[in-house]
Write a structure and sequence with these properties.
This protein is an all-alpha fold. It has one domain. The protein is 74% helix and 0% strand. The chain contains 10 helices and no strands.
Length: 197
């Protein structure tokens, strides 16, 4: 139980690290919180600083989701509750990204960090979600639309490739969080106001 508490706290603190802001400062670019879409994610970094910044940001955000989950998979020993404990650690990482301690609890939308969590738990589900995201992006040319579509498919992908009920519940929670965080994007999509690539 002590390991569970420590890993959950670590996951939240790692999730709170603002990868996009750090990348923007390192590359001497504008503050992504005040430029472009105002988001700290890879899509906004792509608009502001190009592909390299976007890739680094994505890897940083995904990594802070994957790392605590990998640690939990190796360190947690909760018996029948092990999978639920690992899922809770993954949730903490995503919540840290969305509500970061270091930025006054105003962070990103959780897409890349959630992907990192899923990639560590159910790699086949993550691989299929990448295909869904790419196909959606090619068809819509809208980053947020591709994220929303991938989020809708998240529980289905995890359910298809993992028998774990805890991981399926986690997928539902992460999907819901991503959809709620994109509610303004969804409104703009319906109005035809969301920017395209």
């Amino acid at each position: 139980m002590k390991n569970f508490a420590l890993l959950t706290l670590l996951a939240y603190l790692l999730g709170s690290i603002p990868s996009g802001l750090l990348v923007a400062r390192f590359m001497k670019g504008p503050d992504p919180r005040t430029q472009g879409s105002g988001n700290l994610g890879a899509a906004n970094l792509y608009r502001l600083l190009g592909l390299k910044a976007a890739v680094i940001t994505f890897l940083g955000d995904a990594g802070k989701g994957a790392l605590p989950v990998i640690l939990a998979l190796n360190w947690l020993a909760l018996g029948a509750w092990r999978e639920a404990g690992v899922a809770a650690v993954g949730t903490a990482a995503v919540l840290g990204h969305i509500f970061p301690l270091y930025l006054g609890f105003r962070g990103g939308k959780g897409v890349a960090t959630a992907f990192g969590v899923v990639a560590a738990l159910v790699p086949l589900a993550a691989a299929n979600l990448v295909l869904v995201y790419i196909m959606a992006l090619v068809q819509t040319r809208i980053f947020s639309a591709a994220s929303l579509i991938a989020a809708w498919f998240l529980p289905l992908a995890v359910g298809l490739f993992s028998p774990s009920k805890a991981y399926l519940f986690l997928a539902g929670v992460l999907s819901g969080l991503i959809l709620v965080c994109h509610r303004e994007n969804l409104e703009r999509i319906f109005k035809g106001e969301e920017p395209r690539i």
